[in-house]
Amino acid sequence: MALSEPFLAAALEVAHRAADEAERSIHARYAARDFSVDAKADATPVTEADREAEWIIKDVLRAAFPEHAFLGEEHGREGHGDCLWLIDPIDGTKAFVRGYPMFSTQIALMHRGELVLGVSAAGEYGERAWAIRGGGAFIGSSSADGRRVQVSDTRDFGPLAALSTGNLKSMANDPVRWQALGSLVSRVGRIRGYGDFLHYHLLARGAIDLVVESDLNILDIAALVVIVREAGGVFSTLEGAAIDLHTRNALAGPPALHAEALALFNPR
After folding, report:
1. CATH class of 162-265
2. Rounded to whole angstroms, how far apart are CA atoms 119 and 132?
3. Of 40, 84, 120, 253, which residue is least crowded by CB atoms under 10 Å?
4. Does pTM top 0.90 for this prediction?
C-alpha cells in the first residue's frame, strides 16, 4: 500500500522533532568540545555525540512509528518492514571534531525501496532543508521558516554554470571518468568542492548546477535525494541507476545538465 500524503506530512513533523532534539544534544557537545574521538573500522572518526544523537533520533521516531525499521550510521540496522528510516546523526564528523560547522543531521524515510521523505538539518551552519514525495522542497533556518526552492534552469555547461564535487578518490583511478570530469571543469564558469550537505542545498535552491561524487554511502545522501528531486532535479548514480541502499556514488543536477553529464561519464 502506498503511503498517503497525510501520513508523509505527519512523518515529516516527527522527523523535524527528531532533528531538533538531536541538534540540541549535538550543539551542547560541539560548543563545550566535550567528546572523545574513536576510529571506526573504515578509519573514519566517531564520537559520543554521534552515538547519542542517533539514539535520540531513533527514540523520537520509534515512539511515533514502533513498527518501522531503522538503519543508522553508528548502530546499524534494527527491525524489518516496508518503512525504513535512514539516519546519519552527524554527517561530517571530521568537521564536527575539528570545530567548523560543515556537518549535519540526515534523516530519511524509505518505503519499499523508494525514498519518500528527507530532512537535512545543519544547525551550526544555520540551515535546514526538507521534502516529502510530491510536496516540493523547502529550505530555511529552521522548520518554521522554510521557503520553497527549485533547481536552476541552466541548460548548458557554459560560463554561467557552477559545478561542485565531493570525494573523488575512486574517480581519480578511472581515466575515462576523470577525463570526463576534466572536460566539465574546463567548460563551466565555476568549480568548487562545497561537499557534504551544502552542495545539495545549493543545488536545490538553484545556486549551483551539478554535483559529482564518487565515494559515499546511502546514509550520506538519502535525505538529500528527496530534497533535490522535489526541487526539480535528477539524482542518480554516476552510472544512471536509481539510488538505493547499495549506492556508492552520485550525480545530481537539473534534468538537461544531468543528462549531458551522465553521457560524458558513460561514453559508448
Report:
1. alpha beta
2. 9
3. 40
4. yes
46 forms bridges with which residues in the sheet? 38
- Assess contact for 91 and 219: CB atoms under 8 A: yes
- DSSP summary character for residue 142: S
How high is the pLDDT of residue 167? Answer: 93
* pLDDT, tens only, 125-135: 999 999 999 99
Q: How many whole angstroms separate alpha carbon 57 and alpha carbon 85? A: 10
* Residue from 65, 101, 56 nearest 85 by CA: 65
Domain topology for 5-149: Fructose-1,6-Bisphosphatase; Chain A, domain 1 (3.30.540)
Residue 52 cell numbers, joined: 547519542
Distance between CA atoms of residues 249 and 108, nearest Å: 18
Instruction: Kindly list the domain boundaries of the chain, sorted by start residue.
Output: 5-149, 162-265
Q: Which three cell numbers stand for residue 245?
A: 541502499
What residues does 137 pair with on adjacent strands?
A: 131, 149
For the chain, strand residue ranges (E) read 37-39, 45-47, 69-72, 76-78, 83-91, 104-111, 114-122, 127-132, 137-140, 147-149, 162-165, 190-192, 210-213, 234-236, 250-253
With beta carbons less than 8 A apart as the criterion, state whether 56 and 18 touch.
Answer: yes
Given a contact cutoff of 8 angstroms between Cβ atoms, the answer to whether 166 and 212 are in contact is yes
pLDDT for res 43: 62
Q: Distances from the Cα of 151 to the Cαs of 74, 154, 159, 222, 234, in angstroms?
A: 32, 9, 18, 18, 10
